[in-house]
Structure formats: structure tokens, C-alpha cells
């Protein structure tokens, strides 16, 4: 359902208040991630995926595939874009269903436990919520929290994940309990964590690599740092990073509201230039269509 915002900086929030968090979960979550907090949402998902690599069974599988060692940027872009397709167009749209088929086909190659799948799903819900409440230009509306929960629960059902808790708080408790039970150091955690950290550093000039690493270390909690075998972050760097993020939020509060969704509109995408122009969801993933090779490098950049 396409909707337009009301007038003023809080026009999208006014629209959200008119919607139902169950029936309209995709619309509300698209507003949150695509219009209100696209930058924050992207950063939160980066740390959400990073968090899943603290589970030895998950990192062992990723180490086995070799994707993070050989093609970390593509692996990252595939995951982000496949989920973004479902969010931008809906999980029951043509592109959404195609994205789900790609995700399910990739997962079917491996023996992945239901609890690991469910845990990864929880990070897409609660990590962005926590990040935006901490660093966003406004706090989330209760309907936004519930819409995020219901949206990803529906995605989870279509991925064949079983025993998904039916309440927001119950699923949040599952996440906490699972982390308490599974976050342990392993060499696979360290390897996948290091590949991912190197990927983050590659997005910046080489001279900034030490600063980027220190910034990431500072934003990791103690349990994550231990699971990766990373050094504890500097409290001074943490204070600087938090102040910078909150200063950014104060400035963004005075920006005009966005009138175009930025869920999939990323002209700087490194693996798929100009995505989504010239691409289909089937071009993504480890079993991508050969057509992606003819698309890459020739699709025009899109305006954002």
C-alpha cells in the first residue's frame, strides 16, 4: 500500500499512528527503515549480522562455505538486498517471493538448526530497534516496534522457521537466553569476525583503518568481544563515538522528511552497481543467475 506523509517533519509518524501494526506491518516498517531512519537502519543491520557470528555453530557454517573469506562484500550485499527486497515490495509481492525463494534455496544447502535460524531472525528485529532508540533522531513509536516484530515473524514463517514466539516480549527473551547460552569464543568466530571487520575497514581510506577498528571495538559489548577474541574497546573511543552519533541525530532532526524510500536505493552498492536498476532478486546470492555478470558494471546509478 503506497501512502504519502502528512505535513511537517513528523508527517510520517502521523501516518504511522493511523495504521495497524499487524495488518500494515510492512508499510509501517518500510516507513521506519526507508524514510525515517535509513542510515541508522543500515548501521544497525551491520552490527546485527556481526552479532550472529558470535554463535559458534553459525560462524562454523559460514567458515565452511568460504564466502566470507573469498567474497565478503558480495555475501554482505546479498543478505542486505534480499531482505531489503521483501521490505520494499512486501514478502508476498513478486519480487518478495522471488527473494524468499533465493534465501530458502541457499539455506537448503546446509544443515541449519531451527534455533539458529530463529536467532538470526531476532537480530533483524531487536538490534535496529535498540540502535534507533539509542542513536536515532527520535524514539520509535510503539507501533513501529510491533510492526517490525510482525513483519519479520511473517518472513520467518515463509522461511520455514518453526516455533516462533507469538509475542514481542517472548521473542525478545528467547534472543537474550540464546545469547547467554551460545555466545562462546571459537576460532571460527574469530575468523569470520576478522573477515567482517576487514570488510568494514575496506569501506574507508586505508589511513583510517586503525580508527575504524577501534571504533568497532568500542561499540561491541563485552560478550561479543569475548566471543570474537577481540580486545576490549577503549572507553574514551566509545564516548567519542556515542557523542558523534548523537550529534548526528540532533542535526538530522532538523532535516526535511524524505519523500522517497531508501530501502533498496543505494547508488554506492559495490557488488551490484546502480541496484535495483537492471537486476532481479534471482541475481543475488551464492546461486545467483549468470545474468548478474552481464548486469554488473553496466547498470546506471540511481539518484537518492
Automatic annotation (TrEMBL):
<protein>
    <submittedName>
        <fullName>Oxygenase MpaB family protein</fullName>
        <ecNumber>1.-.-.-</ecNumber>
    </submittedName>
</protein>
<dbReference type="Pfam" id="PF09995">
    <property type="entry name" value="MPAB_Lcp_cat"/>
</dbReference>
<dbReference type="InterPro" id="IPR046366">
    <property type="entry name" value="MPAB"/>
</dbReference>
<feature type="domain" description="ER-bound oxygenase mpaB/mpaB'/Rubber oxygenase catalytic">
    <location>
        <begin position="55"/>
        <end position="250"/>
    </location>
</feature>
<dbReference type="InterPro" id="IPR018713">
    <property type="entry name" value="MPAB/Lcp_cat_dom"/>
</dbReference>
<keyword id="KW-0560">Oxidoreductase</keyword>
<dbReference type="GO" id="GO:0016491">
    <property type="term" value="F:oxidoreductase activity"/>
</dbReference>
Amino acid at each position: 500500500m503506497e501512502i504519502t506523509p502528512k505535513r511537517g517533519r513528523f508527517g510520517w509518524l502521523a501516518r504511522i499512528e493511523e495504521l495497524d501494526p499487524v495488518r500494515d506491518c510492512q508499510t509501517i516498517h518500510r516507513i521506519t527503515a526507508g524514510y525515517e531512519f535509513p542510515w541508522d537502519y543500515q548501521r544497525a543491520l551491520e552490527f546485527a549480522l556481526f552479532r550472529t557470528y558470535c554463535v559458534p555453530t553459525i560462524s562454523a557454517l559460514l567458515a565452511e562455505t568460504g564466502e566470507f573469506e573469498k567474497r565478503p562484500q558480495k555475501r554482505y550485499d546479498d543478505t542486505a538486498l534480499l531482505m531489503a527486497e521483501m521490505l520494499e515490495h512486501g514478502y508476498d509481492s513478486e519480487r518478495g517471493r522471488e527473494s524468499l525463494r533465493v534465501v530458502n534455496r541457499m539455506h537448503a544447502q546446509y544443515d541449519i538448526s531451527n534455533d539458529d535460524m530463529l536467532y538470526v531472525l531476532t537480530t533483524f528485529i531487536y538490534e535496529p530497534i535498540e540502535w534507533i532508540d539509542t542513536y536515532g533522531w527520535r524514539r520509535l513509536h510503539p507501533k513501529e516496534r510491533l510492526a517490525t516484530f510482525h513483519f519479520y515473524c511473517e518472513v520467518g514463517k515463509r522461511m520455514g522457521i518453526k516455533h516462533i514466539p507469538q509475542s514481542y516480549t517472548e521473542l525478545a527473551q528467547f534472543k537474550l537466553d540464546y545469547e547467554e547460552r551460545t555466545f562462546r569464543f571459537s576460532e571460527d568466530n574469530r575468523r569470520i569476525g576478522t573477515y567482517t571487520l576487514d570488510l568494514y575497514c575496506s569501506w574507508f581510506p586505508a589511513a583510517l583503518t586503525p580508527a575504524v577498528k577501534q571504533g568497532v571495538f568500542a561499540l561491541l559489548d563485552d560478550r561479543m568481544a569475548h566471543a570474537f577474541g577481540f580486545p576490549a574497546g577503549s572507553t574514551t573511543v566509545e564516548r567519542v563515538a556515542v557523542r558523534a552519533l548523537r550529534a548526528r541525530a540532533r542535526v538530522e532532526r532538523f532535516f526535511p522528511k524524505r519523500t522517497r524510500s531508501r530501502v533498496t536505493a543505494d547508488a554506492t552498492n559495490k557488488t551490484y552497481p546502480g541496484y535495483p536498476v537492471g537486476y532481479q532478486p534471482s541475481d543475488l546470492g551464492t546461486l545467483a543467475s549468470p545474468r548478474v555478470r552481464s548486469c554488473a558494471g553496466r547498470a546506471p546509478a540511481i539518484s537518492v
